[in-house]
Amino acid sequence: MTTPNDPDALRREMQQFLYAVSHDLQEPFRKVRTFSQRLETKLADRLDEPARVDLERIVNAASRGQAMIEGLLVLSRLETQAAEVAEVDLNETLAAACANLAERIAAFDAVVTIDPLPTVEGDPGQLRLLFEAMVDNGLKFQSGNEVPSVRVFAEETESLGDCLIVVEDNGIGLDEQYADRVFTVFQRLHPRDVYPGLGLGLAYCQKIVDRHGGSICYQKNPERGTRFFVTLPKTRKP
User: Fold this and answer.
1) Ranked by mean pLDDT, which of 25-29, 55-59, 85-89, 138-142 comes out on top?
2) Beta bridge partners of residue 227, listed in sequence order
3) 214: how many CB neighbours lie within 10 A of its CB?
4) Where are the beta strands (DSSP E) in 50-110?
5) Tell me, what's the pLDDT at 160?
6) 182, containing H or E segment
7) Residue 150 and residue 110 in contact, taking contact as beta carbons nearer than 8 Å
8) How many helices (H) and strands (E) does the chain have?
9) Residue 154 is inside which H or E element, if any?
10) CA-wise closest residue to 143 among 202, 103, 190
């Protein structure tokens, strides 16, 4: 029997849960998608427009459900599959994050500027995901024909043991009144057909920053865009 003071047993239980989520719970969504697409192919000549729209909605809903489960898996693995603490050059971390987002950056014709950043102790993969989610957030929430712009830079802090990273975008801006919602799982402030996504990116950021003993907050710029402030300790506490 698992006891509250048995971290290895709790970790094993979490791994079993993750297996169930990754396999058993995703299988129904896969089947819904597969058979709906088969029906659409078999009945293509007999489907009227309303029926075709209904099938498309079924496939989209199943895809969204599967993506939500996969997103929860990522969130859970931040707890159960952390890497060993290492020195992380945040310049290299941001470069890797932007490489993963290269297609999206090109599609938006966006400009991403990275000023010199410090080195911290942490989980390299998690920190890459942190900044990948934040840059992607700056690309996504745009309006009009303005070229998306994201700038990442460091600022001085009062504490010598911390570093402050700022991620600034020129998007639609995020009001401070939503500060208690935007970092929670599946919280969306805009219609899905206007700004697609699951509402997980900033939840990833909050979890990763918490695990590194830091903090994250944001401020809406007076004219346009948002500034996110990420404080990370330079040295991880044991």
Assistant:
1) 85-89
2) 168, 219
3) 19
4) 86-89
5) 78
6) none
7) yes
8) 7, 7
9) strand 149-155
10) 190
Dist CA 86 CA 70 (whole Å): 27
Q: Is the pLDDT of residue 24 over 50?
A: yes
| Distance between CA atoms of residues 2 and 87, nearest Å | 34
Mark out the alpha helices in 169-225 (DSSP H runs).
201-211
Please choose, from the candidates 66, 57, 64, 65, the residue with its C-alpha nearest in 3D space to the C-alpha of residue 37. Answer: 57
Instruction: Express as a percent the part of the chain with pLDDT over 70.
Output: 80
Give the list of residues 6+ apart from residue 76 with CB closer than 8 angstroms, or none: 14, 17, 18, 21
Q: How far apart are CA 168 and CA 151, in angstroms?
A: 5
Per residue in 160-185, pLDDT (tens digit) is 788 999 999 988 777 676 667 777 76
User: Cα 43 vs. chain centroid, distance in angstroms?
Assistant: 38
Task: Tell me the per-residue pLDDT of 182-206, one tens digit each, with 9 for 90 and over.
Answer: 777 656 555 555 455 556 788 888 9
CA neighbor of 164 nearest in space, from 173, 174, 172, 155: 155
Which residues 6+ apart lie within 8 Å of 116 measured at CB? 91, 154
Encode burial over 29-50: b for 16+ CB neighbours within 10 A, e otherwise. beebbeebeeebeeeeeeeeee
**pLDDT for the residue numbered 193:** 52
Residue 212's identity, in one-letter code, is: H
Distance between CA 72 and CA 78 in Å, rounded? 10
pTM: 0.74
